[in-house]
Amino acid sequence: MNSGRSSHFLTGSPPEDVTRAVFSRMAPDYERNAILERASGERLLDMLALGPMDFVLDLGCGPGHLTRSIRARTGGKLVGVDASAGMVAQARWNARGQDITFLIKDAEHLDFEHGFHVLFCNSAFHWFSSPERVVGGCLRALRRGGWLGLQVPATRQWFTLARDVAAAAAIHPRTREVFSRFRNPIFALGSVEEYVSLFSGGGFDVHDAWLELETTRHTPKEAFALFQAMAGAAFFNPNCYGDGADGAFFADLAQVAGDVIATQTADDGLIDVTVQRLYLFAVKPLTV
Ligand SMILES: C[S@@+](CC[C@H](N)C(=O)[O-])C[C@H]1O[C@@H](n2cnc3c(N)ncnc32)[C@H](O)[C@@H]1O
Fold this sequence. Notes:
Layout: H1 3-6, H2 18-33, H3 35-48, E1 56-59, H4 65-71, E2 78-82, H5 85-94, E3 101-104, E4 116-122, H6 131-141, E5 142-153, H7 160-169, H8 176-179, H9 192-201, E6 205-218, H10 220-235, H11 247-264, E7 271-283
Parallel strand pairs: 1-2, 1-4, 2-3, 4-5
Antiparallel strand pairs: 5-7, 6-7
Helix pairs in contact: 2-5, 2-10, 3-4, 7-11, 10-11
The protein binds S-adenosylmethionine (SAM).
S-adenosylmethionine (SAM) is lined by residues 23, 34, 37, 41, 60-62, 66, 82-84, 87, 106-108, 122-124, 127-128.
């Protein structure tokens, strides 16, 4: 917690912890930059095949681009929750006039009781620090027979660009000292089976789960924006370092990331960006 450092991100609001403030600072640009997250989220929604009046909870909704897509697919109650006040403010603004409730709420303290037919969680689960607790809250939030649909960048191979920037920052003379104190907040298990165990252990019947390796080609500018959207809340987050992670360090780190992207850019001016994603579908048993 470093409310002094975070307070300038959200003037007039209660102080957020640093991680939430980093997400809040990303909120205005997130939707434009998160093209891969939108694509995976739309795919998850297609597979969930919502009913016309399903009640849906969008967990870790960000600025609500996918929540609005859910609104177009069902007429039932729709709630988006996110721990970042900036993301929720952006989501409310983007969805003004639409019948969607957005709440500032930590996934680790969900207090919904059996109200939803579907719980949708796209590209957010890896940011949760107590996954078991989140799974318990998800189970409680669903009606019996309700579905959970999850997509999350997963395993330690979740994002090759993050791996490569970390390797470069660990040896670059201008970043290596501070970067040696980097504590990656990303939650990652080693295999599909471990993710299945996490949800089965929390009371869900897991119907299907698999990993997909997704490679897309981008301009260096797009790749940098993707890096920020996907990994910025870790790499550019003072909370993930000890002392010394100041503006100059983050400028150097951004330079290192830009250099990595430039080095990997092919002759046609494009770079491969690879993300490993887990898709998981689970049901709340009728007997719980
Ligand atoms: C990568 S964004 C994903 C946003 C959106 N679901 C999408 O697919 O584009 C991750 C979101 O998770 C939120 N988040 C991180 N930790 C959270 C927590 N403990 N509780 C609720 N939301 C959290 C962040 O504020 C951020 O908006």
